[in-house]
Design goal:
The protein is an alpha+beta fold and about 1050 residues long. The strands form eight sheets. An eight-stranded mixed beta sheet has the order 1-5-8-3-2-11-14-13, with no helix packed on it. Helix content is about 40%, strand content about 20%. Its cofactor is Zn(2+). It is a lipid-anchor; GPI-anchor; Single-pass type II membrane protein. Belongs to the peptidase M1 family. It is found in: Cell membrane; Membrane. This is Aminopeptidase N.
């Protein structure tokens, strides 16, 4: 029905939405225009009076010219007789401020008009010199409350024509004015007669836009094929950018069905959420174009709409397809193999079949998030979708599996059932981040994915959540900057951690049954967290795993509506065989923890030597006592078994000594599960760092590492020890830290060596990467010589772009070490390899390694190129790489990898966890993704990667201050180049400031922030977190440095 009205003539109103573009005139001129066109006004009034059908309106139309003058606030309306739309010219560009208050609080659309379905037609022009698109959208709306206006979203669009027509009678409604409320990005259609409650109407809008280069909305991307630049058009709508592609009701709760038609050049292909229907049809006036029409979608949110027009090719596996550049399509085989397997695992896990007829996944050359879960058309950065044998590392296999698993999990959590508003973003990202581990584990069980969750997500969330400037999981957000700001580790990793905790206290069976009930009851609809709590409560009561007087909401609200997390202190009474447990909020600076009144429902699990695991609850109470432990005064006591709870644990000194003694016995550490060994190391070092525990006790725990061989505990330890590296690397006592770390590493280093075995298990490969990267970073001659020799062999080979014998799992170490000790010749060689590389994972590794140089002028030039068009550096990796690298050990930097930003996520792009051979969780305190998104996220961490370059440079102790000065000096350029609302800007701020540990540095940044606070936008929260972390670092140096130096001077490993 809507399709048959595509050529109806619409009211000719041209409105530009975006960056405060408007026409103003003086009062005398306005009066003159009124007199000049008074006849036209009268004529229009008579004409409108006689219009009673769509056919009659097509003869002559009313043109509403809104002229808003801030001084006189006068509006002039005129009429114009025009030919049909296809031949019409733009009349006037108008914008109306509509007297919006300076501080907009309510950014939600009114609910008097709701969308039922969309028919969208878009014609993109993907040619240099004309990156634009024309479009038409016909929206069928239901009116719930009689109203004299229809309000929806539009941003950065030119509105050409608007028409409102009543469905049953085909009667057009007279439009008084079409206005743009810029701050809220509202398109408001004011009517001379109201739309009536209970009736259905058509809203038809024709518009134009630009295929932007900011990787938002409907945007352009390019790549080179045999030296020729090829262009494509793609979309990224989460969270609030669908309105940049077509006028719409751009909120997650306002679901509708979408019918999409795309015009494309005949030599290209169009894909969208649903399968193509029919055969391509010619486009009038464009002989080189054809129309592709797609099936109408199921009810879905606008942010999940996607379409890509490209010359890509695909490989298929049934209804599953993976698309890539022609020269990279062979790299899609691994994704095509595991994608259907993970999808089938989720169908069984959730108990609901995937509802769409196909899945397309596509790797895009430029993409702001790590990946995006668009329903039926999942978009990715190339590096998290494509894998090339003997070039991509084993770590990238795990990374790809995780990102695919994350996005496929969203097909149920986020797409099938969607949060009502972005305040509950974590329902999307937290679930996807936790369930991705289950999905990835289903295809890679040998990687112990559920063990790695502890270091990759749980410990990572602790780092950010220990700051006072952290935020609740479920948090009120309004404007787009605030929404994008929460695609971080709190939404992703903390959300995942508390879900894992809940799964453990409910049991997996009850958890799955509750999830199935939740999804079945809310499918194709929206939900809030209380909907999930209610269904899980029902299930847990039916299965009798939860006291009938307790609800999931009562428990979980303490975790989602309160900021931070608790530290549980276990103080044993050895004579009475009891323990007193107390809770308080854990903060990075314990002396900032004033009178504590924040308590949580904490699921306590505990055990002792040879004892069964027991459990109890701390019910929002400051202390509890557990009697009859059945332990002697020489036996250790452990709380939070397998670290399933989202809390840290401290003990009295005697119990810490008992645990340490057990760890130091020959093979004594094997009594504890690897997850608990990772927990003990991470808890002890972070408790000491924050002032809850003596550093002598914490450092004593690390002594057992000489006999540790598991990846998860080692990774946890190295993250904490990396923090000491950051604090001491610029001090006169760094050698003491260096000597201690090498004493811990040397035996393991000798065992695993620098050379890989063909059949080495993947976790051994990870360990080799982690150990060798630290040893080379500390300048051990054997490691450095090995790295430089391999680099020089590659450099001297006759065809280095095709022949690289360096192990793909050690390339990050080799490249960074050789560039660090080399000069311009090594740097220029690596830069050329970067430009020539066809595998994105290899490009990422090279890009990171280029920041390892110690030549200040090279680093300065590198930063300059990062924000220079056509330098060879893409914008899209900024957010993800900055977030990833600020959280890793230096100087050898692990390539980024999560989908935050966003991210996913969002990011959502995202924080890196599986770079190179090893990867793993982040190292710098206060880390955060995105965002991705996922996005990761995560809401998120797309020409090459400016933020990645900044992160690479700041990973170098020389580059840290250089990058900070560059940030301040080129602040306006950064904002202009990346976009003021870019998550990349937030990541750059973090990388340049997170390692401050002197008051001078912190004060300087405070002053800069004070001067530029209104310009920080989405990066403001990040800046405040960096200041808080910097102040914590300063206090840490004052409180701990002398004591640690003394301990390091006397310890005998």
């Amino acid at each position: 029905m809507t399709h048959t009205r595509e050529d109806a003539i619409m009211e000719t109103t041209v409105t530009t939405f975006g960056k405060q573009k408007f026409v103003t005139i003086s009062k005398p001129l306005a009066l003159f225009l009124c007199l000049l066109f008074v006849g036209c006004i009268v004529g229009t009034a008579l004409l409108v009076y006689h219009l009673s059908s769509c056919q009659e309106l097509s003869k002559v139309e009313e043109s509403t010219l809104v002229v808003y003058n801030k001084k006189y606030a006068e509006t002039v309306t005129t009429t114009t007789e025009i030919p049909p739309f296809s031949e019409s010219e733009e009349v006037v560009t108008t914008t109306e401020e509509n007297n919006v208050k300076s501080e907009v609080e309510d950014v939600r659309l009114p609910r008097h008009v709701l969308p039922h379905s969309y028919d969208i037609k878009l014609v993109p022009f993907i040619v240099e010199g004309n990156f634009t698109f024309h479009g038409e959208v016909m929206i069928v709306v239901n009116v719930t409350v009689t109203s004299d206006n229809i309000t929806l979203h539009a941003d950065d669009l030119i509105i050409d024509n608007v028409l409102v027509c009543e469905h049953l009678t085909n009667k057009f409604l007279s439009i008084r004015q079409v206005a743009n409320e810029t701050k809220r990005q509202f398109l408001i259609i004011y009517l001379n007669e109201p739309v009536e409650a209970g009736l259905q109407y058509y809203v038809s809008i024709k518009f134009k836009g630009v295929l932007n280069d900011l990787l938002q909305g409907f945007y352009r991307s390019s790549y080179k094929d045999n030296g020729k630049v090829r262009w494509i058009a793609a979309t990224q709508f989460q969270a609030t950018d669908a309105r940049k592609a077509f006028p719409c009701f751009d909120e997650p709760a306002l679901k509708a069905r979408f019918q999409i038609s795309l015009a494309r050049p005949k030599n290209m292909t169009a894909i969208s959420n649903m399968p193509q229907i029919g055969t391509p049809e010619p486009v009038d006036g464009l002989p080189d174009y054809v129309w592709d029409h797609f099936q109408q979608s199921l009810p879905m949110s606008t942010y999940l709409i996607a379409f890509v027009i490209s010359d890509f090719e695909c490989l298929k596996n049934g209804t599953f397809s993976v698309w890539a550049r022609r020269s990279a399509v062979s790299q899609t085989k691994y994704s095509l193999q595991i994608g259907p397997q993970i999808l089938e695992f989720y169908e069984n896990f959730f108990g609901i079949k995937y509802p769409l007829p196909k899945v397309d996944m596509i790797g895009l050359p430029d993409f702001s998030a790590g990946a995006m879960e668009n329903w039926g058309l999942i978009t990715y950065r190339e590096s998290v979708l494509l894998y090339e044998e003997k070039v991509s590392s084993k770590g990238s296999l795990q990374r790809i599996a995780h990102v695919i698993a994350h996005e496929l999990a969203h097909q149920w959590f986020g797409n099938l059932v969607t949060p009502v508003w972005w305040s509950d973003l974590w329902l999307n990202e937290g679930f996807a981040t936790y369930v991705e581990c289950l999905g990835a584990n289903s295809v890679n069980p040998h990687l112990k994915e559920l063990d790695q969750f502890v270091i990759n997500d749980l410990h990572g969330a602790f780092m950010l959540d220990a700051l006072k400037s952290s935020h609740q999981i479920s948090i009120k957000v309004n404007n787009p900057d605030e929404i994008n700001d929460i695609f971080d580790r709190i939404s992703y990793s903390k959300g995942a951690a508390i879900l894992r905790m809940m799964q453990h206290f409910l049991s997996m069976e009850v958890f799955r049954k509750g999830l199935n009930r939740y999804l079945q009851s809310r499918m194709y609809n929206n939900a809030e967290q209380d909907d999930l709590w209610n269904t899980l409560t029902q299930q847990s009561h039916e299965d009798k795993v939860l006291d009938s007087a307790i609800t999931i909401k009562e428990i979980m609200d303490t975790w989602t509506l309160q900021t931070g997390f608790p530290v549980v202190t276990a103080f044993r009474n050895y004579e009475l065989d009891s323990v007193t447990l107390s809770q308080e909020r854990f903060l990075v600076n314990s002396f900032n923890n004033s009178a504590n009144s924040v308590w949580w429902w904490i699921p306590i699990t505990y055990t002792g030597p040879g004892k069964a695991v027991k459990s109890t609850w701390m019910r929002m109470e400051p202390t509890i006592i557990i009697n009859n432990l059945d332990l002697s005064d020489e036996e250790w006591f452990l709380v939070n078994v397998n670290q399933t709870g989202y809390y840290r644990v401290n003990y009295d000194q005697r119990n810490w000594n008992l645990i340490t003694s057990q760890l130091l016995k020959r093979n004594g550490h094997l009594v504890f599960d690897p997850k608990n060994r990772a927990q003990l190391l991470d808890d002890a070092m972070n408790l000491a760092s924050a002032g809850y525990l003596d550093y002598d006790i914490a450092l004593n725990v690390t002594r057992y590492l000489k006999q540790e061989r598991e990846f998860v505990p080692w990774k946890a330890a190295l993250i904490s020890l990396d923090y000491l590296y950051e604090m001491f690397v610029r001090t006169a006592h760094f050698h003491r830290y260096k000597n201690y770390l090498l004493a811990l590493l040397q035996d393991f280093y000798k065992e695993i060596g620098f050379t890989e075995g063909e059949n080495d298990p993947q976790l051994l490969v990870y360990n080799r990467f982690e150990i060798n990267s630290r040893v080379c970073k500390l300048g051990v001659r054997d490691c450095v010589v090995n790295a430089v020799r391999e680099f020089q062999t590659w450099k001297n080979s006759p065809d280095p772009d095709k022949r690289n014998l360096i192990s793909e799992n050690l390339r990050e170490i080799v490249y960074c070490t050789a560039i660090s000790v080399g000069g311009q010749e090594e740097w220029d060689f690596a830069w050329q390899r970067y430009l020539n590389a066809n595998v994105e994972n290899e490009k990422e590794i090279l890009l990171m390694a280029l920041g390892c140089s110690k030549e200040i002028w090279i680093l300065s030039r590198y930063l300059e190129w990062a924000i220079t068009e056509n330098s060879g550096i893409r914008k899209h990796d900024s957010a993800r790489v900055f977030a990833a690298v600020t959280s890793k050990k230096k100087k050898v930097v692990v390539a980024a990898g999560k989908h935050w930003q966003s991210a996913e996520g969002r990011a959502r792009a995202g924080a890196g966890r599986w770079g190179g051979a090893g990867g793993g969780a982040a190292g710098a305190r206060g880390q955060q993704p995105r965002g991705a998104h996922e996005q990761y996220d995560a809401r998120r961490a797309t020409t090459a990667h400016p933020a990645r370059m900044f992160a690479a440079v700041t990973s170098n102790s020389i580059g840290q201050q250089l990058a900070y000065r560059f940030l301040k000096t080129h602040w306006n350029r950064l904002r202009s180049y990346l976009g003021a609302s870019s998550m990349s800007l937030s990541s750059i701020v973090r990388s340049c400031t997170i390692r401050f540990n002197t008051q001078l540095e912190v004060d300087d940044f405070k002053m800069f922030l004070k001067m530029k606070e209104n310009e920080f936008g989405i990066a403001l929260r990040t800046a405040r977190q960096s200041i808080e972390q910097g102040e914590a670092n300063v206090h840490w140096m004052e409180r701990n440095s002398e004591r640690i130096i003394k301990w390091l001077s006397t310890v005998n490993v």
